[in-house]
């Protein structure tokens, strides 16, 4: 290899290194400037009532009446199926 080819290879290597450094800097910049998606609900209202209302008596009534999706998420059952199971199992459990 002659001197000109070595210089050309050296320049190509420096260019590749500079491109890699630039990619790292751009990635860091993008991470710093990304904004987080605003949360719509931090804590559902009924969760804050648990220490005062208990986990069953009042809380279940509130969930069943006001927030059916949260009731399903909390019990993994629809309100109708939950009521049916309570009706069926209460005599056996008593």
User: What structural class do the secondary elements suggest?
Assistant: mainly alpha
Which blocks of ≥5 consecutive residues have pLDDT under 50? none
Report helical residue fraction: over 70%
Tally of individual helices: 5
Give me the Rg, rounded: 31 Å
Query: Could you tell me how far the N terminus lies from the C terminus, measured between alpha carbons in angstroms?
Result: 94 Å
Regarding quaternary structure, how should these chains be classified? single chain
Q: Supply the number of structural domains.
A: 2
Q: How confident is the prediction overall: mean pLDDT? A: 83
Summarize this structure briefly:
This protein has 94 residues and is mainly α. It is built from 5 helices and no strands.
List keywords for this structure.
mainly alpha, 2 domains, 78% helix, rod-shaped, 94 residues
